[in-house]
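SAMPLE LOG
Freezer: B-3
Tube label: C17
Construct: single chain, 183 aa
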Amino acid sequence: MSKAFTKEGDNDGNDDDEEIIDILPAETPNYMTPTGFAALQAELRQLLYTERPKIVEIVSWAAGNGDRSENGDYIYGKRRLREIDRRVRYLAKRIENANVVEPEKQRHLTQIFFGATVSYARADDSELTVQIVGLDEADAGQGKISWLSPVAKALMKHQVGDQFELRTPGGAERIEILSIKYE
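STRUCTURE (predicted):
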């Protein structure tokens, strides 16, 4: 069948031609905090030593049941194995290319750099605290923003007491840096 007529995600069971899309721009270092690095390693271990062996066992059992074309356990098990293997390749690549930065060992601790936890006041007198982390560990809900995000880039190199305009999709907003911590 022509690839032009397949849905995204359809394949013939062969992932080898699929490419892992790297979310980092070319030649950009993959900075990561020790906590983020440990989380990626833990996820990789969990996939390799817990989840994948269970799925392999299910697929082996299902393969022994005969006709694989209508065997849901076999079909979905193989699909899950491909997903796990894809994620394992991605995690292995990210871990291999990681540049772990110890936030507390940063120089110029009075300025905002990677790993800093920054509190700032907004124009409406609300206070916001964010930690500048690696791309893989960013989670806005927990106040962790990627060092490549526009907000993090705007905060970089500022010091406590600095006031400046932060450009947001809603327009420019005046903010003041209240505190900087490295933990």
